[in-house]
């Protein structure tokens, strides 16, 4: 951000009063809205005017030259943020001039999260804290870009030649300063420096020297993978049944043809006369009933041959006495005819 108080304390650039008398304050529209909502506009404006610079003054440059660490905030092109930590020997964060800082990229875990964000979004924020002496902090916001060692060294020949471990620098991050302001000492704790390690610890790949698995993340991930490997495979998902096709719509029912109107009564022809009933034919005369057959004598069943040879019996006379006489004579004739046959079972 440009338009901060100049080196002589006067306002210049966009921070100076505009033709309409209004000043363009540093910061975002969101923080200005909150200042109005919470009633802190006067305090915020006083801080902007007295503490926010667009460069590093002499005392700021001296402060940067003594620091051995800082925190770096970056974000990708979508605004997703990342905060990282950088450390080195005093003065590893180089003050190239009042408006330019640069720091070398040492060997790390190979993720390059900060560099990846800077390659998409140049906005970066640095926070330097002195826990040991002054208990004060310094904010530096600006635009960062990645440059090679050869490119930066061509512009600033006084850069150090190698890292404390003897390795040459390959990449630098250059930061063009837009804002620089104090972080008050109210809540910065006092700390005592621990015994220093050997210079060879800088840039080491030793797992234990780098902290190892201090938070147990590697053990947790290893246990999770082992649990997933021992888990029985899930049953394959059954194929989904395709939905039944919708039933075809019934064809439209044709409308019934219109009923023709009845003709006038005087045009309707007279109905034909009903045909006369045909007389039924006379019934046939009843036939006389046949007389019952005479009984067969017991013990003398007729064979088919004998039945054919037997003469037909005359019809019984109407007189009972005559009928009996005729039956006696027929019996005698039958006995005579069958006397030479040896009986029924001859």
TrEMBL record:
Check the record and name the InterPro entries matching this protein.
Pyridox_Oxase_N, Split_barrel_FMN-bd
Q: What is this protein called?
A: Pyridoxamine 5'-phosphate oxidase
Q: Name one Pfam family in it.
A: PNPOx_N
Transmembrane stretches, start-end: none
Species for this entry = Streptomyces hoynatensis
Annotated region (Disordered) at 1-41, 219-255, 279-321
Gene3D superfamilies associated with the record: Electron Transport, Fmn-binding Protein, Chain A
Pro residues composition-biased segments: 233-255, 279-297
Q: Which residues form the Pyridoxamine 5'-phosphate oxidase N-terminal domain?
A: 57-182
Output the PANTHER family linked to this UniProt entry. FAD-BINDING, PUTATIVE (AFU_ORTHOLOGUE AFUA_6G07600)-RELATED (PTHR42815:SF2)
- Taxonomic superkingdom: Bacteria
Signal sequence extent:
none
Please list the coiled coil stretches.
none
Q: Where is composition skewed (Low complexity) in this entry?
A: 301-312
